[in-house]
Write a structure and sequence with these properties.
alpha/beta; Rossmann fold; Helicase, Ruva Protein, domain 3; 3 domains; five-stranded parallel beta sheet; 14 strands
Amino acid sequence: MIERLRILLVDEDAATRRTLAAHLARSGDDVDLAEDGRAAQSLLTSRTYDLVLGDVRSPRVDVASLAEAVRLRSPDAAVVPMSAFASVEHVTAAIRVGVYDYLLKPVEPQHIAVLLCRVRERIAMRRRLDALRETLPVRDALAVLMSGGPTMASVNQSARRAAACDDPVLLVGESGTGRGLVARAIHALSARAEMPLVMVDCAHDPARLGVALFGTPLNPGGHLADARGGTLVLDEVTAMPADLRARVFAAVTQPGAPRVIAVSTGIPTFTGRRDPRRTELLSWVRGIEIVTPPLRERREDIPRLVEYYAQLASGIAAPVPRVAPEVMAAFIESPWEGNLRELEAVVREAVTRAGTSGVITREHLPESVANRVDRGSSLVEQVEAYERAVVRRALETASGAVARAARELGVPERTLRRKMRHFGIAKEAFRKRSRYKHLPVSVPRA
């Protein structure tokens, strides 16, 4: 449901402007008035519109110039000329410059109602198409990046549960662990998928964050208005100034407000004397907490991720290069402090360097990863190094439970035990891992 349209009405006659504005306002829409093309262009520099109505009988309103100005500032707006002296030539010329419709004056109220209805349908259709374009790649990436081992299976289930409700969500994880992807997935799988998804970096410029979120007195709106009925993602929410958190909390708890997904590198805690009025936003967003684990805690997924990123880097038509066993072993053992973002960058670079050779070898890797590749090993030794790494990571994920590790690897338990004896790996070496927890982020009292 499109709650409110932003409309610009251009007409040199003051009485006509008032009459048409009254008709337009009856639908609860926002209407700005301009007396000529110059005034309209001035408004277009500071606001975006869904509908621009212009009386083209005045020599100071040119259809082509108005359409071009709208296209530059509000490319999705519907431009509708109005005239009491329209001719076939006038209408044809207007169509050539890409107008949405053409109204004959005097404009009847029922014509206004029909036009507004069609514009709302147009916006809804565009949003559905945008949502579809957004959802398909997100769901594809979600299937690859959030499935696999039990660690990400848990994240996947939590994301789907969050998508089924409207509660606020707190996503906690290191940079590069896919927090943005999880936020997009929650939106794409929710009932709000056809509505806007707005992502705000709270740490980029905290001093101007209030203007970005709420707009200004002369140009109200901002990200909160853009996200109406949809989802607002607050990245690095703990960087938001305390006073602004109180304003945002008041706004997002109103009817019709966007659903909030907060992103943080840690679970917020507070220093000094606690002030509930200033910290309620951070307490409120912890309704659902989802932790995205670092790549070092899901190494069993690395071979599948490498194949996925290689496919993306190669494109649809190009063949995907094979990854040499010793290189895959190095991928599995690398620390990946930059997590998924770093892994993707390394794989993309390796695919580019490999070119048409058909296989990614040590020479195609950056030094940080290449140094982990054993250059002097035979092919058999390289394959064994890769198998050893896979077995170790599977046992680490399963906390030493051989049967569980075998199920995750898709091999019989006796096969895994044989491999463990061959590599000299003891299940006792893998202590049960504690649940992944981030260090808390301290939020000072304002």
